[in-house]
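Sharing a chain and its predicted structure for anyone who wants a worked example. Both blocks are below, sequence first, tokens second.
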Amino acid sequence: MTMKIGIDARMYGAGFTGIGRYTAELIEHLARLDDRNEYVLFMRKEAFDAFECPNDSFRKVLADFSHYSMGEQWGFYRVLEAEKLDFMHFTHFNAPLLYKRPFVVTIHDLTLSFFPGKKMNRWYHRMAYHKVIKRVTSQAKHIIAVSENTKKDLINTLKVSEAKISVIHNGISPQFGGIKATSKETLMKTHGFSKPFFLYTGVWRDHKNVVGLIKAFSAFNASQNHAYELVITGKPNATYQEVPDVISELGVGEWVHLVGLVSEEDLYGLYQHALAYTFPSFYEGFGLPPLEAMQCGTPVLASNTSAIPEVCGEGNALFFDPYDVEDMQAKMKHIATDAVLRKTLIERGGERVKAFSWEKMTKAVLEVYSEFSA
């Protein structure tokens, strides 16, 4: 039975953040694996204009409605209704409350439940968030959780029935890091560092614990006669001024480098040449960067909280308590001074990433879709 399936691709191409990457990989692999169903992709204008459908089973529809907006609730609802879909896949929890047709939703995390942050934190924003995520998870025919940890949060926090949740891990492309990476010498010259370096990639938000990372690195580096440096990528965020502020306060600007958004070639180069990748988050629903580091042959130093140990796997990363700066500092010293440990983590990390693939993820998603044709 051929089905007409909608996919919320409004985050497609949005700098390929986590959900944007998830959506892009899902679409690409559905085009390879499914020759039966018809797909309607709902996209924002920039992606809509640039995107070419992979084959005749795919059609794109303009849905230029931002998340957390009234346009999402009314305009997107009308666009969805006009398509008369057999079912809809919302790749994020944002969905029109009035939409009553069958749908499945992917829940990546409940970060806003535990770490609301500084944006959209007025009482009415919080009320809208709780209303939408509660309604979407209760009305969904099925929920895809990207980790066992997210599944646990859905059950404990939103009281979702375990029977309607499938855990389907994200993937990582075997080609990740496969393009020609920028050389270490060029990276050092371009971004102004000259010593063995720890790397952090990602956004600056409360739950990412970037400030804690800088504090731990500062203490560690001082104990090692400033023999190391810390490189932090990501778009500067004026809302989280604590990041540059703590660098100034601790006087570590000579050793902590905020390099901003970098090219893919530079990113792969930073991954490959880092002494260790650091992932200090308080909370993650999945956490793709440690797998990216493992794929690039870099040892991983990571938090022991939320989904991170589940994704990294026991013995494949060196874990620390993200709430304990002294523990983080001690683990930095351990990984920096123990070449045997680094070699072991690189080898084990290389094996660990083999457990994750976007093709495997998409096949599992198709099994969820098949329940609608029964």
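Comments welcome. The domain at 4-171+357-370 is CATH 3.40.50.2000 (Rossmann fold).
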